[in-house]
Each structure stands twice: as structure tokens, then as C-alpha cells.
Amino acid sequence: MLKLAVFDVDGTLVDSQGDILTSMEAAFGVVGLDVPTRPQILSIVGLSLPLAMARLVPDATDAQRERMVETYKDAYADLRRKTGHAPLYPGIGDLLTRLGAHDNLLLGIATGKSRRGLDALLDGLGLPVRFVTTQVADDHPSKPHPSMLLTALRESGVEAKDAVMIGDTTYDIEMAQAAGMQSIGVAWGYHSQEKLSGSNLLAKDATGLEQAIYEILGEFT
After folding, report:
1. Which one of 8, 10, 168, 172 is the catalytic residue?
2. Which of 28, 46, 141, 162 has the fewest CB atoms in 10 Å of its CB?
3. Largest CA distance in the chain
4. How far is it, in rounded angstroms, from Cα 132 to Cα 129?
5. DSSP-derived secondary structure for 138-196
6. Is 119 a catalytic residue?
7. 47 forms bridges with which residues in the sheet?
8. Nearest to 53 by CA among 39, 72, 37
């Protein structure tokens, strides 16, 4: 029986907060608005960019927000060209390698990143695993809408009861609940442990995450 583990990216697999904060500074600067605080910015990580901007600057015009979104994307891409990809969190590379070695465990991604951003990141990381399904903000309503996970289940041929969503924000946890899936919150990301209390399990490091995946999905071959 196939199982599926779906991962968020920013704040779960990679520590991209430096690039996110710098890109937000560029986005707000282009329209002459004050940059939100670090906690305010990190609170919206995981949402699609248009929704994130709407949350951060509800009084901005549509034209301003569109310009901010495009500036953010360009600034982020420019940073990637100059400094390379964001680093994996400790132990995540080895964890993905071990998980990818199981014949009946499929791996997927559900992220607020664009397709361009995700492809560039995965190419830069050069991970020795294959993600059988990769869902991005370009193709779906923003988290916590379940569209990403429902599509991941359909593409992988796995039922919701045999799948788990792994993420660092309440948006990931709520998306999993809406899709009928269990979830694992990771404590090293951008939302507090208290906010992740709705997850089925909470992992504090890569070792704990591996144990939590086994606990929810069972043993693998």
C-alpha cells in the first residue's frame, strides 16, 4: 500500500527567511511604504504572494500590490542568482534520502512558492530524491485551501488516510485538515509551537520528524 508524505518548503525544508525579508524590503520600497516587522512578515509565509500582500497592506491599491508582488519575485530571483539557494535545515537532507529509499513511500511538495522559484530551488539543492507531486501557488488557491493536497493525492494515487502533510505554519495544518489528512508541525519554522497545536504531532528536529512520520504512516518497505 502506497503512502504519501507532503512537505511545505519555506520554514520546513529550507531556511529562507533572510531572502524573504530582503525581498519584502524591496517590494515595500518600490511603492514607498514602511516595511512591516520581521514577525509580521514571517507570519504570512506560506500564503500565496497576492494574499500575503493583501494581509500585510490591506489599504494598498490593487496596482500597488501587483507591483509589490512582481518586485518581490524579481528580488528573490536576483538574490538566488547572487547568493545561491537557501540552506536546508539541519538533518533534512539525510532525512529525505532515507525516506526516499522506501519503495512504498512517495514524497510530495505543497508550497506557496511559484513554479519558477521551486524548480530553481530543487535544481540548486540537487536532492537525491524524487518528489512525485509538486504543487505550487501558480496553480491553486492559497493555503489553507485544500486544492494543493487534493491534487497531490489524485496525482499520487494515495488516499487521504494514508498521507500526511508536514509544515511549519497554521496554513499547512488547516490545509491538511480541510483535505482530510493528518499533519505534523515542525517547531523550527516561522509559526510558534502554540500556533501549531492543531497538528496531530509536533517535531522539534529532523529525528523527531522521521519518528512522527513513521508513527502516523506506519512502517515502510
Report:
1. 8
2. 141
3. 55
4. 9
5. GGSPPTTSTHHHHHHHHHHT--GGGEEEEESSHHHHHHHHHHT-EEEEETTSSS-TTTT
6. no
7. 45
8. 72
Return d(Cα 135, Cα 148) in angstroms, integer.
6
CA atoms within 13 A on the CB side of 204: 2
Q: Tens digit of pLDDT for each residue in 51-94? A: 999 999 999 999 999 999 999 999 998 998 888 888 999 999 99
pTM comes to 0.92
Question: Distance between CA 105 and CA 221 in Å, rounded?
Answer: 8
- Amino acid (one-letter) located at 37: T
Sole residue written with cell 492559497: 142
Distance CA 106, CA 103 (A): 8
| Ramachandran angles phi, psi of 191, nearest 5° | -115, 150
Task: Name the CA dihedral angle for 136, 139, 140, 142, rounded to a multiple of 10 degrees.
Answer: 50
For the chain, the distance separating the N- and C-terminal CA atoms, rounded to the nearest angstrom, is 10
